[in-house]
Fold this protein.
Amino acid sequence: MNLEIKIFKALSHPLRLKIIEKLKSKSTCVCELNNDIELSQPALSKHLKILKDAGILTNNKVGLRVEYEIKDTKIIDVINIVEKMIIKDLNNLNIKKVHSSRRNPNESFKIE
C-alpha cells in the first residue's frame, strides 16, 4: 500500500487522533496511554500498530516498559492544517446560515 494512503488511513480514526494528541508533548508508556484513552489493551495495541506501520509513531523499550512517541512532528502540522480547514468551512456555513435566515436585508451578519 502506498505510504501516503497508509498515513491518511491511520489518521482517519478518532481514537488514533486522540493517541497522537496524547503523544504530542512527550513519549508515553503504553500503560499510561491505556489509562488515558480507556480502551482494552488489545484494541490500543492494534491502533498503535497501525500508527507505527504508517510511520507516524515509533517505540522504544525502556526496561519492561514500551514507550511510544511521534516519529516526525510534521504530522501535527498536517492535523492542524486539516482542523483549520474544517473550522473555516464551519464558519462559512454559519455565515451562510445567518444570511439566509435574516428577515431584514439591512441587518448585519452575525456568526452563531
